[in-house]
Design a protein that fits this description.
Layout: H1 16-31, H2 46-56, E1 68-73, H3 76-97, H4 100-106, H5 117-120, E2 123-130, E3 132-134, E4 142-144, H6 148-165, E5 169-170, H7 179-184, E6 191-200, H8 216-219
Antiparallel strand pairs: 1-2, 2-6, 3-4, 5-6
Helix pairs in contact: 2-6
Length: about 230
Amino acid sequence: MQDQKHIPLRFDRLSEQNMRQAADEVFNRFNARRTVRHFSTDALPLDVVRKCIEAAGTAPSGAHKQPWHFCLVTDPAIKKQIREAAENEEYENYHGRMNDAWLDDLRPFGTDHIKPHLEEAPALIVVFRQSWTPDEEAASGKSQHYYVQESVGIASGMLLAALHECGIATLTHTPSPMGFLAEILDRPPHEKAYLLIPIGYPAEGCQVPDIQRKSWEELATVYGPKTTR
């Protein structure tokens, strides 16, 4: 097996003081991130969105297969199609597929099967996962991918972080089942919809649920010497 070519790593080692400052700043920014369901119709600078998608594409992946594809949708007609199909699936979810416990957990958020944000948001990003890609040189005609769910999940998280850093609000939407997305967007058979993300600026007067995040004690367990600042 031929060794992969290697190049020098570009890495800036920070002082501990700068590390702590950076950690505080990134936590404060990320802690301010909230899911938005009410979007302004104002257009976004699409070059910024593209750069955020490119940033997501730098995510680590199993065997560096990069098993993802991102579809950026701004066409009003396509957004309308996606909304109608999503609402059809969500109606079934809210009227039979979801059990009572699930519905009770959603009730504080005031959600239902009506999804106007899929049209109001100036853009949608649909993340597709690729379990394999066509490969004419392989005996099976397919190039196998590894750790697909994990890899695409990491890339999606990086996308949300990049958009937030650039002042763009997001909503993570999974109208299961999501087969309609591949059909509407005419995606190839090796791609399956993973996540639907409306993006944009929050609508004027936008409000979000008053939620609390886990405390450190609930969030993590440390195995090793305890350190304090």
